[in-house]
Amino acid sequence: MAETHTVQPGDRAIAYLTLTPSAAVLLLLVAVPTITVIGISLQDVGFGEMSGPWIGLENFAWALTSRTFWTALKNTFVWVFGSVSLEMMLGLGLALLLNRTFALRGVARAIILAPYLIPTVVAVLVWRYMFHDIVGILNYMLMSVGLISKPMVWLASTSTAMLSVIIVGVWKFFPFVVIALLGILQSIPQEQYEAAEIDGASAFQQFWRITLPHILPVFLLTALLRTIWTFHKFEIIYLLTGGGPLDSTTTLPILVYIKGFADFELGRAAAIALITFFILVVLLAVYFGFMKRAEARQ
Amino acid sequence: MARVEIRNVGKIFGNYKAVDDVSLTIEDGEFVVLLGPSGCGKSTLLRMVAGLELPTFGDIVIGETVATRLRPKDRNIAMVFQNYALYPHLTLYENIAFPLRVAGRRGDEVDKKVRWAAGLVGIEHLLARKPRQTSGGERQRTALARSLVRDPALFLLDEPLSNLDAKLRHSARDELRTFQERVGMTALYVTHDQVEAMGLGDRVVVMQGGRVRQVGTPEEIYLYPADTFVATFIGTPPMNLIDMPGEVLGVRPENLMPVSFFGQESGLRRMTMLVSRIEFLGSDKLIYGALDDPFGQAKVIARLPSSVPADIREGERAHFAVREHELRSFDPQTGLARPAPIPQRASVASHG
């Protein structure tokens, strides 16, 4: 038996041997599906089949020249930008509010988190009721204060469907932003505000010169993370509108689903999925670059 | 610079009296130290002077102005915090410039002031660094420089040396005092460290349980403690307290010496001690033991310069003495000091 810590000839083999099970699982769960999708994207595959005639990059060419794809890409950006920017603003505002001392602060913090904890399906069903043109509370309230004169068809109109979907998404996920920002806000030493107070800094100056620089790295990181997660969000949109009306809420993940399981064009679905994957990889690279820089700064 | 008057100030949190009816005057250019154990109310008092806490009652006058309800920025004060409260994302330069920037000053004036303040505390060469790239001592000086740039009437310092290591604290204390004399600043300084308090303060305010126990120069507080709390809080080891019928006798360890040390001197109070332990501390020896009657087996500590020859052994009796005028007497009920020196003791004791 080796009593010292020097590397023995057999160590390397043992290391590889002990790593093999997890490597195999990873390979099975990540590499195999990815390679399969790449394979499918290069073939003309219909529903129920695993292969078809090889057609090279034709599926990609189709995607990049089809109006449906570009609409979905545009929708995805509207959905992501709309959701994330609103989540970040709402989250920051509420985190700042919850960071102050007031009666029942603990209760308020718990209530704020509720949307994040409610299962998506439940949330979507409740929101569909609220959006309903006849029995929905949203129309009822807007009409009773006189903001609209006749009921609006929120989810079934091309002009309001995306907005409605974004509202639900923001409602569901802003608590995540609140938690992240509240954590960093609480780490700012109170003394810094007191020192600023003595130095004569106004409330805005304190926010601008102390709070903001302090929370900025976490703020940007949270925004990036939310961007990635929102980008491939599927169930909220699918359950609310199914991508309609008239493709107005069809984002890339929805399009992949429609192409694959409604139009039975698995090859094209795979191509779109891979393009989506590529965009996400770029975003992830930005994220990891950011993390690395943040760690280096510590 | 300005005179500060604290008039019957108190602070009550819920049903806890943090500061209880404190009155104190800090003269123009004076360095006053608030000293006490943690929870004695010294920091709360300082924060009320700063305007970070509102007094429950009483008034604070800075210069000619009743400042009790003024916002901190309107009091013309500067404060150095225990953790320095430097802004981590700003360079030392910008940290020092901060008070000027928020006041809307620009350009040359800011630069001149920052360099002047940095020069005073000797950190000109570090101005481009961020706080995390500097040592504890350099941060402390930066905080000091930041407090200087606004020409405040009053400096408030909340344990500014407590985060430094022992060696650095010693030199920082010396620098701070030299600096205070040069700038002529009026300062209120909070610490729980008696060495710091004695070394820095023109006057020391000893606090306990939210109340002021004694205000005086370091000498007054050490030689004539106002009560048994001050007597035992100041001095290491603390003053020996000996319970006697009708009084509590106080003896500083360094005044309790072997009889042989006094030679033919008169006016001595002799005490015999059963020595239990001797500690050698280099320049001094600490001798632990219990006094024989009539001192009721009181446990005492004597502090003997190592240079004084003495034939004292653990487990044996030794003869000690104290000069009568170095003995202090306290009321056993109230703990308050009776007028020193001692010679009238007999007449006081006969009342008790």
From TrEMBL, chain A:
Superkingdom of origin organism: Bacteria
Alphabetic keyword roster: Cell membrane, Membrane, Transmembrane, Transmembrane helix, Transport
Record membrane topology: Multi-pass membrane protein
SUPFAM superfamilies recorded: MetI-like
Membrane-spanning ranges: 14-42, 77-98, 110-131, 137-156, 163-186, 206-225, 237-258, 270-290
CDD domains, A to Z: TM_PBP2
Localisation: Cell membrane
Pfam families: BPD_transp_1
InterPro entries the record matches: MetI-like (IPR000515), MetI-like_sf (IPR035906)
Location of the ABC transmembrane type-1 domain: 73-287
Stated family: Belongs to the binding-protein-dependent transport system permease family.
The protein's name in its UniProt record: Sugar ABC transporter permease
Species assigned in the record: Alsobacter ponti
TrEMBL record, chain B:
Keyword Flavoprotein: no
Entry GO MF terms: ATP binding
Domain of life: Bacteria
Region (Disordered), start-end ranges: 332-352
CDD domains xrefs: ABC_MalK_N (cd03301)
PROSITE patterns, per database record: ABC_TRANSPORTER_2
InterPro entries named in the record: AAA+_ATPase, ABC_transporter-like_ATP-bd, ABC_transpr_MalK-like, ABC_transpr_MalK/UgpC-like, Mo/tungstate-bd_C_term_dom, NA-bd_OB-fold, P-loop_NTPase
Protein keywords: ATP-binding, Cell membrane, Membrane, Nucleotide-binding, Translocase, Transport
Domain ABC transporter: 4-234
Signal peptide per UniProt: none
Record SUPFAM superfamilies: MOP-like, P-loop containing nucleoside triphosphate hydrolases
Keyword check for Membrane: yes
Sequence intervals crossing the membrane: none
PANTHER family for this protein: MALTODEXTRIN IMPORT ATP-BINDING PROTEIN MSMX (PTHR43875), TREHALOSE IMPORT ATP-BINDING PROTEIN SUGC (PTHR43875:SF15)
Family: Belongs to the ABC transporter superfamily.
Entry protein name: ABC transporter ATP-binding protein
Organism: Alsobacter ponti
